[in-house]
Amino acid sequence: MEGEVGYFRRNHLVPIPQVQDLEELNRHLLRGCRQDEQRQIAGKSPSVGEAMRIEREHLLPLATEGFELAETSFPRVDSKGCVKVRTNWYSTPLKPGRQCQARLLPAYVEIWQERECVARHERSFGRYEQVLNLEHYLEVLAKKPGALAGSRPLQQWREHGRWPEGFDRLWQGFEQRYGRHAGTREMIELLRAGKQQGWERLKNAVEQALSLGCTDAAAVRHLLSFGELVHPPAEICAVGGGLERYQRPLPVMNEYDLLLSDARTEAEVTP
């Protein structure tokens, strides 16, 4: 077993893979495992994958009941919207002072409130660190837009690659168009729309608007919700007998002409 672990490490973890998060690392490891299933060990006729399938038939079945791997605590949300789990702080969308349930998993930290997972962070293995999600502060930033530029949640999003370069270009365009304060407020409103409709859709809408040379907030919102616009089909009206009820006789102007002739005659007679 130790020899196989060493073989896998040398072939799939050297050099150290560069990934953005744990999910990408797990996908990288899974691809390595699938490749190893095709490997042929010297002196063995079946491949690694075939030998694994033969061995699996002699293993005991999996346990019918799961084992809880989470460490549960009940912290209270502080004035900064965070809860302390062990030695680190994790942001939440909950109001300060509320007590919630924190589940510390091997790779993640989940915050639960009334049987609903309201926040999920990658677990930090450092000490006295803050793990902040910009989504949790958009409501507050909408009231104080000037705090967005230097905020730590925005800085962490930039470090983790969650803030595309196009967002900065659009933000600068908003500031030039609406002014610094109002432009930042427009950017925050777009982020709130992205939170509801999905960040990938917002990213695509921003890229499309920039490619058109547009820095108008209303245009970006239109592009963001364009796929949801439903136009009712036009009703097809058969031209024929169904339109006969709208026919009206043409006006007759003979009597009007008589009035005009009478007026001219009267004008000629009057001295």
Helical/strand content category: alpha+beta
CA-to-CA gap between the ends? Answer: 129 Å
Biggest sheet: strand arrangement? 1-4-5-6
Rg, nearest Å: 35 Å
Mean pLDDT: 88
Strand content: 5-15%
SS element count, helices: 10
Number of strands: 7
Biggest sheet features:
4 strands, antiparallel
Number of domains: 3
Q: Give the low-pLDDT segments.
A: none
Q: How would you spell out the order of helices and strands?
A: HHHEEEEEEEHHHHHHH
Global outline: elongated
Helix content: 40-55%
Please provide a brief summary of the model.
The protein contains ten helices and seven strands.
Describe the structure in your own words.
The chain is α+β, with helices and mostly antiparallel strands and 271 residues long. It folds into three domains: 1-39, no CATH class; 71-131, no CATH class; 136-228, no CATH class. It is 44% helix and 11% strand. It has helices at residues 2-12, 22-36, 48-56, 138-143, 152-159, 165-178, 180-197, 199-211, 217-225, 254-269, and strands at 71-73, 82-85, 88-91, 101-104, 108-113, 116-122, 130-131. The strands form two sheets. The protein has a four-stranded antiparallel sheet, with no helix packed on it. A three-stranded mixed sheet has the order 2-3-7, with no helix packed on it. A hairpin with a 3-residue loop joins β4 and β5. The chain is elongated. The protein starts with a helix and ends with a helix.
